[in-house]
Amino acid sequence: MNRNLTPLADAEEHLARCTGDPKRLMTFASEGRFSKDVLANLLRTESRRAYLEACATIEKHFTDQCTAKAEHCLADGCAMDGDVCLDALLKAGPEFCKACAEEWIPLFMNPENRVDEWRG
After folding, report:
1. Do 104 and 43 form a contact (C-beta atoms < 8 A)?
2. Which sign, positive or negative, has the C-alpha torsion 19, 38, 98, 111?
3. Which percentage of the chain shows pLDDT scores above 90?
4. Could you report the per-residue pLDDT of 21-50, keeping only the tens digit for each?
5. Is 85 helix (H, G, I), strand (E, B) or coil?
């Protein structure tokens, strides 16, 4: 590992070694192996907004599903009341990451949307 890299660049270098190429990276992403933030950081700034907006919609969906079950984390009901609930996303686990990856993959397929290190 190159100790002169920033933490993000160090993580990207590790990710490149583990995944090898964009196709393999997209396969790993589709399996829910990466957080939305990791995937966002692999997109150019211009492409991130659309991806993060799509993830916000997904977050709201998982929150709404959790609320509908009426299995609230607090005794007096859901603390979020219309906002996004972290507990709902944690309960969703890899399914949330997979859903975000479904939005990310079409963007990442276009090399113009990738950060320079992944344009290859």
Report:
1. yes
2. negative
3. 45
4. 889 889 989 999 999 999 999 999 999 999
5. coil
